[in-house]
Amino acid sequence: MTSDSSNKAVSSGTLDDDSVSKYLIENPDFFNRKADLLLDLTIPHVSGGAISLLERQVALFRERNRDLQNNINNFIFNAEENDALFEKTRIVILEIMKSDSLKNLSSIVADTLKTEFAADASNLLFIADKPDSDAREKGIHILPAAPTRETMGKLFEKKRTFCCELSPEQARLLFPDSQKEILSAAIIPVHPGDSISGADQYSAPILVIGSDKHNHFNSSLDTLFLDFIGEILAVHISRLAA
């Protein structure tokens, strides 16, 4: 078979061992032009029960190449995830800055976070030592401090965003108006510089985002962007209070 006939066999798709062998013989520079193929080929070396040093080096090179490719793929995936989270965070923050009252802020936070973070419920809550009969009119959702501390347990003392599964009691406390059963949540403590409205009863706002899936919000999630939203909320709540 001539080189032309070998090329025709290759292009026609009717390959067999003989045609491949003849093609390689007639094209000795093939692997110089297609060096990457050597990484995927397995060429045994006849040396009894042992392998040659060359084979071992090639095997190690291929393994390292696979590890490097996996690292690159993970890097690209994480970069894409962070880019998407940054865009969602940007949208949420811009919406927060549009609010001109606590009532308006609570509504914006609930709607925007549900949309951008694929959540089933979201609330901006204020933990109070004393009840406030005008809270609903002000658009403030107040949680009584003592029952909240008892229901949340050690979670009540957290200072930064944390994600976890919720007990039915915790879900009812944080998402009393949800039409779905909330099974996991991200809880973001908000720390305004000054007490809201000059009253200590509103000095502990928290932002909660819930899901009806057990593992949607879990302890392995990176909470950097949620922490940032909490910091923006703290500054804006202080401004609204002033």
Descriptive notes:
The protein has nine helices and five strands. The protein has helices at 3-12, 17-26, 30-33, 53-98, 102-116, 135-138, 145-152, 168-174, 224-241; strands spanning 121-128, 141-144, 162-165, 184-189, 204-211. A five-stranded mixed beta sheet has the order 2-1-5-4-3, with helices on both faces. By secondary structure, the protein is an alpha+beta fold. The termini are far apart. Helix 1 crosses helix 2 (17-26). The protein has a domain at 100-241: GAF domain (Beta-Lactamase, 2-Layer Sandwich), CATH 3.30.450. It is elongated. Strand 1 (121-128), helix 6 (135-138) and strand 2 (141-144) form a beta-alpha-beta unit. The longest helix has 46 residues, at 53-98.
CATH architecture descriptor text of the domain at 100-241: 2-Layer Sandwich
Rg over alpha carbons: 31 Å
Distance between the termini: 90 Å
CATH superfamily of the domain at 100-241, called what? GAF domain
* Sheet with most strands: strand arrangement: 2-1-5-4-3
CATH class of the domain at 100-241: Alpha Beta
Shape: elongated
SSE order: HHHHHEHEHEHEEH
Mean pLDDT: 80
In total, the number of strands is 5
Provide the β-strand percentage band: 5-15%
Q: How much helicity do the residues have?
A: 40-55%
> Uncertain regions: pLDDT < 50 for 5+ in a row?
194-201
Write the CATH fold name of the domain at 100-241. Answer: Beta-Lactamase
Major sheet attributes: 5 strands, mixed
> How many helices in DSSP terms?
9
